[in-house]
Write a structure and sequence with these properties.
alpha/beta, 6 helices, 35% helix, 159 residues, 6 strands, Rossmann fold, six-stranded mixed sheet
Length: 159
């Protein structure tokens, strides 16, 4: 197994998902291997037609693997796929995509992803992007009731 797929396999191992959705053959193969080793895991396979109709996942997914497919989809269709996976409550999403072409770091940052790694494979540059709902929106110190409405200013000033 080459380095990009080892990274995905490691991600699957660390996530230990009970529900996996996979889009693209390499991700489907890795997810199938995981599910064969873990009988309590369910695998949902997706293809390009599923994004055109809209996704209908049987339950909230622990992990989504998107491999070798964004390069073959139109940019709006790929954004829709990633947005739907994210908005349907998928806990973690891993995307392995060619590092050259239509998809840039900015596109993934705009969708809430982080670049985890870059790989060189057979004259091809790949990048691994991940989204984790648990770490996406970090806790902010200012975002709590202590800082709301300036109670120390009540009855002191009008603005």
């Amino acid at each position: 197994m080459n380095e990009p797929y080892q990274a995905l396999a490691s991600l699957i191992e660390s996530t230990a998902p009970k529900a996996v959705v996979a889009f693209g053959e390499p991700g489907q193969v890795l997810a199938q291997q995981w599910c064969q080793e873990h009988s309590d895991c369910t695998l949902t396979r997706l293809n390009a037609e599923d994004t055109e109709k809209g996704l209908s996942l049987p339950r909230t997914q622990d992990l989504a693997l998107v491999t070798d497919c964004l390069e073959h989809l139109g940019h709006p269709q790929g954004q829709t796929l990633l947005g739907q996976l994210r908005n349907y409550g998928t806990q973690q999403i891993a995307v392995l995509v060619a590092d050259t072409g239509d998809w840039t770091l900015t596109d993934f940052i705009g969708l809430g992803f982080k670049r985890q790694a870059r790989f060189e494979q057979d004259d091809r540059r790949l990048a691994l992007y991940t989204y984790n709902i648990a770490t996406y929106n970090h806790k902010r110190d200012w975002n709590n009731p202590r800082f709301w409405a300036n109670p120390e200013m009540w009855d002191k000033a009008r603005w």
